[in-house]
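Changelog excerpt: complex records now keep ligands as SMILES alongside chain sequences, and the structure block spans every component. Example after the change:
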Amino acid sequence: MNTFSVNNLTVTKGNTKILDSLTFDIEQGDFVCIVGPSGAGKSTLLRQLNRLDYGMTGGNILWNDKDLGTYDIHKLRQDIAYIFQKAVMFPGTCEQNIRMGCMYEKGLSKDEIDQRLEAAIEKAEITKEMLKVKAEALSGGQQQRVGIARCLMLNPQVLLFDEPTASLDVETSHNFCLTLKTLKSDIKAKKSASLMITHRLEEAQFLADKILMLDAGKIVAYVPVDDFFNKPVNERVTDFLKAYKL
Ligand SMILES: Nc1ncnc2c1ncn2[C@@H]1O[C@H](COP(=O)(O)OP(=O)(O)OP(=O)(O)O)[C@@H](O)[C@H]1O
Ligand SMILES: [Mg+2]
């Protein structure tokens, strides 16, 4: 079963084709890493998956067998959460920042909100001590966790990550990837999906079930992670991996 089904997706901005007739499916439970050079169209593709982007001039995207365009936009963005390179912190404590995640959801009881908070901080590996700290005083890695916990307050089905570790140092990003690995089992259990863009191939190798490589708005490879690294499907992948090994 697929979660997303992308069919001949073409995105044009001005006179430029940013994505050129992409076709692929995301299977239930898969964690897919998107790689490729700068400007390949990775963020454009990810943003199309929860309608954060404009410019679709051809094809369609189905989510759970229904055209993405037919979903209520607010519900869609609640179900398909987008996590940016750097989490935005609002004035207040870490806990207040996390609770903001569901502040606009109507009809939630205090108990339900508290239960969600418990679950979110556990999954995002936030300690009880951290909750009381002013959000702006947290490190970059901790702020990313707060950003994830805030998203988890909405109980999303799908998590989209756009270079979540790009601004983190190597050690922090390593720890953050360990957190993502635990989230991955949750994704498998829920039969949902997650997509993450990264320039750090070791992260992709560590986390992904499948690798989707884009170049100049086209799919170069979409294969299981071991095949991507051990049996490059074409010369473009071989060249890309060579650069990585330098
Ligand atoms: N609003 C826009 N108008 C015109 N061109 C755009 C617009 N947004 C993005 N582009 C172009 O689309 C291409 C793909 O951009 P995108 O941000 O998706 O790339 P990316 O693969 O995420 O790159 P990076 O790894 O640097 O984040 C780039 O060449 C970019 O200049
Ligand atoms: Mg990008």
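The mean pLDDT is 93. The chain has one domain: 2-245.
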